[in-house]
Design brief:
Order of helices and strands: EEHEHEEEHEEHEEHHHHHHHEE
Number of helices: 11
Helix content: 40-55%
Number of strands: 12
Shape: elongated
Length: about 280
C-alpha cells in the first residue's frame, strides 16, 4: 500500500492512502488547492515524517503516529478512556450519560484514520444524533469514525479559534449535586427540554437577566442571604441560556473573562478594584 503525505497550505499536513477520497471528497479541496509532499510504501517512515513536516511548517503536531491509528487505541480524556479503532470510537458509558461526559471534555481531540475530530458544542450534537449502543452491553456506545470525520471536515460553522482556546485552557467544571454531571450541561438540558432554545430569543433573555439582577440588588439591600443565593443562581441560569442562544458556551465566556482579569493589576478604591491603566 502506498501512503501520501499531503499539504493543504495554511491548513494542515496529513497522511492518507487515498488522496482523492480523503482530501477532495471528505475535506472538499480541489486538486490545485493541495500538494503531495512525499509518497512511500513504508508506513513507519511516513508516520514519523508527517510529524516532522508538521512541526517544520508550523502546524499543530499530531499526538499519534499515523500507523497507530490502525490499531486499537485507548485515549484518556478527563474522566473516561475512549477506544479508537479503524472503524469506530467507543465511549465507556451508556447513551443517556454520554452528553454530560462529553461536555466535561470540551476541546479535547483525537485522531481517526478518517481524520482529526474535536469535542465541541456542535460535534456533541452530532454525536448524540448518531451514537449507537453496543450490541454487547448497554454500558458502552459508539460512533463511526468515517461519518464523524466527514461531518467534522464539512462543518462550516465550526469555530477553530474557540476550539484552540479550549484546548489550551481549563473549562469551568462544576458538578451537579443530583447527577454529578457538569452543572451547566444540566441547565442546558433543562432549558432544551422546555423548548427554550427552539423558541427563545437573546433579547428576552437579556430582559430576564435585568429582572434577576434587580432581585439581587433588593436582596443585598435587605441583607437576605437566602434571596441573594436565589438571585445569583437565577442570574447564572439566565446567562447560561443567553450564551447558548447566542451560540457560545457559558464555559467559554467565563474562561475568556478570567483570562483577561487574571493578568490585570490594580488596587482597591472605595470598595472597588480599579485596574491599572
Amino acid at each position: 500500500m502506498t501512503y501520501a503525505i499531503y499539504h493543504i497550505p495554511g491548513v494542515k499536513i496529513g497522511v492518507t492512502n487515498n488522496v482523492k477520497y480523503r482530501v477532495e471528497e471528505q475535506q472538499g479541496y480541489k486538486p490545485d488547492e493541495y500538494e503531495i509532499l512525499e509518497m512511500s510504501d513504508d508506513i513507519d517512515y511516513v508516520s514519523k515524517r508527517e510529524l516532522y513536516l508538521q512541526e517544520r511548517h508550523g502546524y499543530r503536531v499530531d499526538r499519534q503516529l499515523y500507523k497507530e491509528l490502525f490499531n486499537n487505541n485507548f485515549i484518556k480524556l478527563n474522566n473516561m478512556d475512549i477506544n479508537v479503532t479503524e472503524m469506530t470510537t467507543t465511549f465507556p458509558c451508556p447513551v443517556n450519560k454520554l452528553k454530560g461526559r462529553l461536555m466535561d471534555n470540551l476541546g479535547m481531540s483525537w485522531q481517526t484514520v478518517a481524520g482529526d475530530v474535536i469535542i465541541t458544542e456542535a460535534s456533541i450534537k452530532w454525536i448524540m444524533n448518531n451514537v449507537k449502543s453496543s450490541q454487547y452491553t448497554s454500558d458502552r456506545c459508539y460512533v463511526y469514525n468515517k461519518a464523524f470525520a466527514r461531518w467534522f471536515d464539512n462543518n462550516s460553522y465550526f469555530d477553530k479559534r474557540v476550539v484552540e482556546a479550549m484546548q489550551q485552557k481549563d473549562v469551568c467544571d462544576t458538578a451537579c449535586d443530583d447527577c454529578g454531571d457538569n452543572i451547566f450541561d444540566c441547565i442546558r438540558t433543562w432549558a432544551d427540554e422546555r423548548g427554550l432554545y427552539d423558541k427563545g430569543d437573546p433579547k428576552t433573555q437579556y430582559i430576564k437577566l435585568m429582572e434577576e439582577t434587580g432581585e439581587i440588588g433588593r436582596a443585598i439591600l435587605k441583607n437576605d442571604t437566602a434571596e441573594i443565593i436565589d438571585g445569583i443562581g437565577d442570574a447564572v441560569v439566565v446567562l447560561t441560556n443567553l450564551a447558548e442562544l447566542c451560540g457560545i458556551p457559558i464555559e467559554e465566556c467565563i474562561q475568556e473573562a478570567y483570562n483577561v482579569i487574571n493578568k490585570r493589576k490594580g488596587k482597591m478604591i472605595n470598595g472597588t478594584f480599579v485596574k491599572d491603566e
